Amino acid sequence: MEKEQKYLEGTTTVALACRDGVVLATDTRATAGYLVASKIARKVYQITESIGMTVAGSVADTQNLVNILRAEARYFSLREGAPIGTRAAAQLTANILHAYIFNPYLANLLIAGFGEDGSRIFFLDLDGSMTEEKMASIGSGSPVAYGVLENDFKEGMSVKDVLPVAVRAIKTAMKRDIATGNEVMLAVITEKGYKEFSQAEIKKIAA
User: Fold this and answer.
1) Helix (H, G, I), strand (E, B), or coil: what is residue 14?
2) For this structure, is 48 an active site residue?
Protein backbone atom coordinates (compact mmCIF):
# COMPACT_ATOMS: atom_id res chain seq x y z
CA MET A 1 0.00 0.00 0.00
CA GLU A 2 2.87 2.41 0.75
CA LYS A 3 4.20 2.19 -2.81
CA GLU A 4 0.72 2.62 -4.25
CA GLN A 5 0.13 5.73 -2.16
CA LYS A 6 3.42 7.23 -3.37
CA TYR A 7 2.36 6.41 -6.93
CA LEU A 8 -0.99 8.04 -6.29
CA GLU A 9 0.70 11.32 -5.49
CA GLY A 10 3.29 11.27 -8.30
CA THR A 11 2.10 13.77 -10.91
CA THR A 12 0.84 17.31 -11.37
CA THR A 13 -2.52 18.23 -12.88
CA VAL A 14 -4.27 21.59 -12.99
CA ALA A 15 -7.85 22.74 -13.68
CA LEU A 16 -8.87 26.39 -13.98
CA ALA A 17 -12.34 27.91 -14.37
CA CYS A 18 -12.53 30.85 -16.79
CA ARG A 19 -15.39 33.12 -17.79
CA ASP A 20 -15.66 31.39 -21.19
CA GLY A 21 -14.58 27.81 -20.41
CA VAL A 22 -12.23 25.63 -18.40
CA VAL A 23 -8.55 24.82 -18.89
CA LEU A 24 -6.99 21.45 -18.00
CA ALA A 25 -3.23 20.79 -17.95
CA THR A 26 -1.06 17.85 -16.85
CA ASP A 27 2.42 16.45 -17.24
CA THR A 28 3.00 13.10 -19.02
CA ARG A 29 5.37 11.26 -16.66
CA ALA A 30 4.19 8.09 -14.89
CA THR A 31 6.36 6.87 -12.03
CA ALA A 32 6.62 3.65 -10.02
CA GLY A 33 8.84 4.44 -7.06
CA TYR A 34 12.10 5.73 -8.53
CA LEU A 35 11.35 4.34 -12.00
CA VAL A 36 9.99 6.51 -14.79
CA ALA A 37 7.47 3.95 -16.02
CA SER A 38 6.24 6.05 -18.95
CA LYS A 39 7.13 9.37 -20.55
CA ILE A 40 3.87 9.66 -22.48
CA ALA A 41 1.22 8.81 -19.90
CA ARG A 42 -2.22 10.32 -20.48
CA LYS A 43 -3.68 12.10 -17.46
CA VAL A 44 -6.37 14.27 -19.08
CA TYR A 45 -9.45 12.64 -20.62
CA GLN A 46 -12.52 13.77 -22.51
CA ILE A 47 -15.73 12.46 -20.93
CA THR A 48 -18.27 14.30 -23.10
CA GLU A 49 -18.13 17.30 -25.42
CA SER A 50 -18.54 19.54 -22.37
CA ILE A 51 -16.78 17.60 -19.57
CA GLY A 52 -13.17 16.56 -19.04
CA MET A 53 -11.19 14.92 -16.24
CA THR A 54 -7.63 14.93 -14.95
CA VAL A 55 -6.36 12.00 -12.92
CA ALA A 56 -3.64 11.21 -10.39
CA GLY A 57 -3.24 7.68 -9.17
CA SER A 58 -3.09 4.04 -10.15
CA VAL A 59 -3.27 3.73 -13.93
CA ALA A 60 -5.71 0.81 -13.78
CA ASP A 61 -7.98 2.54 -11.26
CA THR A 62 -8.07 5.88 -13.05
CA GLN A 63 -8.67 4.30 -16.47
CA ASN A 64 -11.48 2.21 -15.04
CA LEU A 65 -13.14 5.28 -13.54
CA VAL A 66 -12.84 7.13 -16.85
CA ASN A 67 -14.48 4.21 -18.69
CA ILE A 68 -17.31 4.01 -16.13
CA LEU A 69 -18.00 7.74 -16.29
CA ARG A 70 -17.97 7.79 -20.10
CA ALA A 71 -20.44 4.91 -20.21
CA GLU A 72 -22.71 6.46 -17.57
CA ALA A 73 -22.64 9.82 -19.38
CA ARG A 74 -23.75 8.16 -22.64
CA TYR A 75 -26.48 6.24 -20.80
CA PHE A 76 -27.70 9.44 -19.13
CA SER A 77 -27.85 11.22 -22.48
CA LEU A 78 -29.87 8.41 -24.06
CA ARG A 79 -32.25 8.17 -21.09
CA GLU A 80 -32.77 11.89 -20.48
CA GLY A 81 -32.36 13.20 -24.01
CA ALA A 82 -29.83 15.75 -22.77
CA PRO A 83 -26.13 15.63 -21.84
CA ILE A 84 -25.13 15.03 -18.23
CA GLY A 85 -24.10 18.14 -16.28
CA THR A 86 -20.70 18.63 -14.70
CA ARG A 87 -21.98 18.45 -11.12
CA ALA A 88 -24.04 15.33 -11.85
CA ALA A 89 -21.01 13.62 -13.40
CA ALA A 90 -18.86 14.56 -10.42
CA GLN A 91 -21.48 13.41 -7.91
CA LEU A 92 -21.89 10.08 -9.71
CA THR A 93 -18.12 9.53 -9.55
CA ALA A 94 -18.03 10.54 -5.89
CA ASN A 95 -20.75 7.98 -5.13
CA ILE A 96 -18.71 5.26 -6.85
CA LEU A 97 -15.57 6.20 -4.90
CA HIS A 98 -17.45 6.25 -1.59
CA ALA A 99 -19.07 2.88 -2.30
CA TYR A 100 -15.58 1.36 -2.46
CA ILE A 101 -14.22 3.22 0.57
CA PHE A 102 -13.02 0.00 2.25
CA ASN A 103 -11.32 -1.21 -0.96
CA PRO A 104 -10.66 2.16 -2.52
CA TYR A 105 -9.84 3.27 -6.01
CA LEU A 106 -6.38 4.80 -5.65
CA ALA A 107 -7.30 7.95 -7.49
CA ASN A 108 -7.64 11.69 -7.05
CA LEU A 109 -9.67 13.40 -9.76
CA LEU A 110 -10.50 16.83 -11.12
CA ILE A 111 -13.75 16.84 -13.10
CA ALA A 112 -14.33 20.05 -15.05
CA GLY A 113 -16.92 21.23 -17.52
CA PHE A 114 -18.53 24.18 -19.24
CA GLY A 115 -22.24 24.48 -19.91
CA GLU A 116 -25.40 26.42 -19.16
CA ASP A 117 -24.32 26.83 -15.53
CA GLY A 118 -20.91 28.18 -16.55
CA SER A 119 -17.45 26.85 -15.73
CA ARG A 120 -17.34 24.27 -12.95
CA ILE A 121 -14.51 22.27 -11.39
CA PHE A 122 -14.85 19.53 -8.78
CA PHE A 123 -12.06 17.87 -6.79
CA LEU A 124 -12.73 14.26 -5.77
CA ASP A 125 -10.65 12.43 -3.18
CA LEU A 126 -10.30 8.65 -3.04
CA ASP A 127 -12.89 8.42 -0.22
CA GLY A 128 -15.54 10.10 -2.36
CA SER A 129 -15.37 13.53 -0.78
CA MET A 130 -16.11 16.30 -3.29
CA THR A 131 -15.47 20.04 -3.28
CA GLU A 132 -16.12 22.67 -5.94
CA GLU A 133 -13.21 24.93 -6.84
CA LYS A 134 -12.34 27.73 -9.26
CA MET A 135 -8.68 26.71 -9.31
CA ALA A 136 -7.34 23.28 -8.40
CA SER A 137 -4.18 21.19 -8.65
CA ILE A 138 -3.52 17.61 -7.56
CA GLY A 139 -0.45 15.40 -7.33
CA SER A 140 3.00 15.61 -5.77
CA GLY A 141 3.88 18.74 -7.75
CA SER A 142 0.71 20.59 -6.78
CA PRO A 143 2.34 22.75 -4.04
CA VAL A 144 4.75 24.10 -6.66
CA ALA A 145 1.96 24.57 -9.21
CA TYR A 146 -0.14 26.45 -6.65
CA GLY A 147 2.74 28.89 -6.22
CA VAL A 148 2.25 29.93 -9.86
CA LEU A 149 -1.54 29.76 -9.83
CA GLU A 150 -2.01 31.84 -6.68
CA ASN A 151 0.10 34.59 -8.20
CA ASP A 152 -1.03 34.54 -11.84
CA PHE A 153 -4.62 33.25 -11.91
CA LYS A 154 -7.58 35.51 -11.18
CA GLU A 155 -11.27 34.66 -11.36
CA GLY A 156 -12.97 36.00 -14.47
CA MET A 157 -9.96 35.58 -16.75
CA SER A 158 -10.50 34.33 -20.31
CA VAL A 159 -9.38 30.93 -21.57
CA LYS A 160 -6.87 32.64 -23.88
CA ASP A 161 -5.25 34.46 -20.94
CA VAL A 162 -5.25 31.39 -18.68
CA LEU A 163 -3.61 28.96 -21.16
CA PRO A 164 -0.04 30.23 -20.55
CA VAL A 165 -0.66 30.27 -16.79
CA ALA A 166 -1.65 26.59 -16.82
CA VAL A 167 1.37 25.62 -18.93
CA ARG A 168 3.70 27.64 -16.69
CA ALA A 169 2.29 25.95 -13.56
CA ILE A 170 3.02 22.47 -14.95
CA LYS A 171 6.46 23.43 -16.27
CA THR A 172 7.39 24.98 -12.92
CA ALA A 173 6.33 21.80 -11.11
CA MET A 174 8.55 19.82 -13.50
CA LYS A 175 11.57 21.79 -12.29
CA ARG A 176 11.08 20.92 -8.62
CA ASP A 177 9.12 17.65 -8.45
CA ILE A 178 10.90 14.50 -9.67
CA ALA A 179 7.59 12.69 -10.28
CA THR A 180 6.42 15.43 -12.67
CA GLY A 181 8.06 15.69 -16.06
CA ASN A 182 8.52 15.07 -19.77
CA GLU A 183 5.74 16.91 -21.69
CA VAL A 184 2.71 19.10 -20.98
CA MET A 185 -0.78 18.03 -22.03
CA LEU A 186 -3.29 20.84 -22.43
CA ALA A 187 -7.03 20.84 -23.10
CA VAL A 188 -9.87 23.37 -23.02
CA ILE A 189 -13.64 23.08 -22.88
CA THR A 190 -15.59 26.03 -24.30
CA GLU A 191 -18.91 26.55 -26.07
CA LYS A 192 -17.22 24.94 -29.08
CA GLY A 193 -16.65 21.73 -27.11
CA TYR A 194 -13.59 19.81 -25.95
CA LYS A 195 -10.19 20.46 -27.56
CA GLU A 196 -6.68 19.14 -26.91
CA PHE A 197 -3.61 21.07 -28.06
CA SER A 198 -0.69 19.66 -30.02
CA GLN A 199 2.87 19.89 -28.68
CA ALA A 200 3.62 22.55 -31.30
CA GLU A 201 0.66 24.64 -30.11
CA ILE A 202 1.71 24.22 -26.46
CA LYS A 203 5.23 25.44 -27.24
CA LYS A 204 3.79 28.58 -28.85
CA ILE A 205 1.59 29.19 -25.80
CA ALA A 206 4.55 28.70 -23.46
CA ALA A 207 6.64 31.14 -25.48
Assistant:
1) strand
2) no
